[in-house]
């Protein structure tokens, strides 16, 4: 994660069912579905003004930290999150072993 994102808090927006960060007045977020033992990450998006800043990667990494700290397992349905975990295989530790694409990570 780029240093400029380290101190930006992750917001769990219950109303919009997403995790988000705000940077320079714009949002990067991940739509999610939370269950009793798992959190499914469905879609990652950053507003166009954040393109190329690393905001999407930052919201993913912060969300993975949140999931790990919650003790829940990750279901990475979002292609961006899936690719992030392939690139950073240390995060596979929080992916639910029953996830269909687990062996491709």
CATH fourth-tier homologous superfamily: Gcn5-related N-acetyltransferase (GNAT)
Structural class: alpha+beta
Helix content: 10-25%
The helix tally amounts to: 2
CATH second-level architecture: 3-Layer(aba) Sandwich
Major sheet: 5 strands, mixed
Q: Report the end-to-end length measured between terminal Cα atoms.
A: 20 Å
Order of helices and strands: EEEEHEH
Radius of gyration: 13 Å
Q: Average pLDDT value?
A: 97
**What's the CATH class, please?**
Alpha Beta
Strand order of the largest sheet: 1-2-3-4-5
Q: How many β-strands, per DSSP?
A: 5
Described by the principal axes of the CA atoms, the overall outline is globular
CATH topology: Aminopeptidase
Give a description of the structure.
The protein has one domain: Gcn5-related N-acetyltransferase (GNAT) (Aminopeptidase), CATH 3.40.630.30. Helix content is 24%, strand content 30%. It is built from 2 helices and 5 strands. Strands 1-2-3-4-5 form a 5-stranded mixed sheet. The protein starts with 10 loop residues before the first strand and ends in an 18-residue tail after the last helix.
Record the SSE blueprint.
Layout: E1 11-13, E2 18-23, E3 26-34, E4 38-46, H1 55-70, E5 73-76, H2 79-87
Parallel strand pairs: 4-5
Antiparallel strand pairs: 1-2, 2-3, 3-4
